[in-house]
Design brief:
By secondary structure, the chain is an alpha+beta fold. Helix content is 30%, strand content 21%. It is built from 13 helices and 19 strands. A hairpin with a 4-residue loop joins strand 10 and strand 11.
Length: 469
């Protein structure tokens, strides 16, 4: 686990980096309580990051005096997570979490100003610099707009720019203090009059200044196109009558919802379906199982077909960089495998799948699925995919309209193989058919190319000699 700089006085513990590209995590469960004596490396909390469950250990021994967050909260990297008893024993006045983060986001120039006697905030009436206690209070209450960069998507920033508004002056009402399109429009209508009443609240919003945007709209679209804007409609009230169970919308389920919401609001989906005659492949699969002594499903054979097909149709083995307005085609196949677990849908990555033999692919899928189901899979194996496959046939489905695993540009759903009457070269026979559903991002992949790719996969599955040659 990478570490951020921790305070030297050990009075509080700052949430460290939990992995590359992780800027926030959901607090799932506290493993300690206020007043507990904890040992060094003892687990303090369980946190969820991009569907991976992470245990956060204590960096030192001490007495926990405060837990800075409730289960279900989203905690930013750099925020105070736990306070220890040393802060009370030192005799210093307590400092709020906002003050700790305010100091963490200050620039070197502001630190030099404070050393010289200049502080953020107002001075005493007689013109003297405020005391150390006043400085701490000012830091907790006021964070200047120069020191805090508003959290907002590029689409929202584009709206603010078009309206001539400094987005750093807008109070964000979205999750984690994010500025939404509604906030910008409200500010444009009411201007500074509405700002003064919410000034103190907005200044208490503390962020990590270098957090990148997570849900950018497509950069080639104009800000007023309506695409990429956050919804402005009020929430619909829910009638609680008849409810038998209330389940908190958090953890993996919330991560799934965020990912799917981002995908459908960004990618332009289209789906093409087809069926492959896998009668001959079924015989070959049974031969492989007898030779290897391992029962094989059709999935590793489909993975082999995908590897060949994506080599012929590289446009589908790609990801979109929304920020730079770039399409990145990949030379290797890092295949996302949709896995149904008790915690929810997870998508581990089978790396360099094009290099794997049939048995190696089967073993790799089994290992990843087991890691997802017992929550032991590391976060590194849940990121970096370039194409995803979903085996909906495991649960009896045939066709589907799968949602693209953003920022990828395509996903294949494979249905359950079933017996049907087939015809070939004028001959009618009972065979085995495999349904397939391919969804693509129409901004990147043309409909004809998607259909050609699916036809290539179908051709390979129907010719085991070419597939396994």
């Amino acid at each position: 686990m990478a570490q951020v700089k921790q305070p030297a006085d050990k009075s509080h513990f700052i949430l460290p980096d939990l992995g590359e590209g992780v800027h926030e995590a959901e607090l799932i469960k506290w493993r300690v309580s206020a007043g507990d004596q904890v040992a060094e490396h003892q687990t303090l909390a369980e946190m969820e990051t991009d569907k991976a469950l992470v245990e956060v250990p204590s960096p030192w021994a001490g007495v926990v005096t405060e837990l800075c967050g409730a289960e279900g909260d989203i905690i930013n990297v750099g925020s105070v997570l736990v306070r220890y008893g040393e802060s009370a024993e030192s005799g210093d006045p307590p400092v709020s979490p906002a003050a700790d983060q305010a100091r963490a986001t200050e620039s070197p120039a502001s630190e030099e100003q404070e050393d010289a006697g200049t502080v953020v905030g107002s001075v005493n009436n007689d013109g003297d610099a405020p005391s150390a206690l006043t400085r701490r209070r000012n830091e907790a209450e006021v964070v200047s707009t120069e020191q805090v960069r508003a959290l907002a998507t590029p689409a929202v920033r584009g709206i603010a720019k078009q309206l001539g508004i400094d987005i750093n002056r807008v109070m964000g009402t979205g999750r984690g203090g994010r500025v939404t399109a509604s906030d910008v429009e409200r500010f444009a209508q009411h201007g500074a009059a509405g700002e003064s009443s919410s000034n103190q609240t907005s200044r208490q919003r503390v962020t990590v200044a270098d957090i990148p945007e997570h849900t950018p709209a497509h950069p080639s679209l104009p800000a007023d196109s309506g695409i990429g804007k956050e919804p402005t409609l009020p929430p619909v009230p829910v009638d609680p009558s008849g409810t038998t169970e209330v389940i908190p919308f958090r953890g993996v389920r919330r991560k799934i919802a965020e990912a799917l919401d981002r995908s459908v609001k960004t990618a332009v989906h289209f789906t093409v379906v087809d069926e492959a005659d896998i009668t001959d492949l079924d015989r070959k699969r049974k031969e492989y199982s007898a030779i290897t002594g391992r029962k094989l499903s059709f999935l590793p054979f489909v993975i082999r077909a995908l590897a060949h097909g994506l080599r012929e149709h590289p446009a589908l083995n790609a990801v979109v960089d929304e920020v730079k307005s770039e399409i990145h085609r990949k030379g290797n196949l890092n295949l996302g495998i949709a896995v149904d677990s008790d915690a929810g849908l997870m998508v581990p990555v089978l790396r360099n799948a094009e290099k794997l033999a049939i048995v190696e692919a089967a073993e790799g899928v089994a290992r990843l699925a087991a890691g997802c189901r017992d929550r032991s899979i590391p976060r590194e194996e849940l990121t970096g995919s370039s194409f995803t496959i979903s085996n909906v046939g495991s649960y009896g489905g045939r066709f589907a309209t799968p949602v693209i695993n953003h920022p990828e540009v395509a996903i294949l759903a494979v249905g359950r193989g079933y017996e049907k009457v087939l015809a070939k070269d004028g001959r009618i026979y009972a065979g085995l058919s495999l349904p397939m559903s391919l969804s693509c991002d129409h901004r990147v992949v043309d409909g004809a190319e998607g259909a050609r790719f699916l036809n290539t996969v179908k051709r390979l599955l129907e010719d085991p000699t070419a597939l396994l040659g």
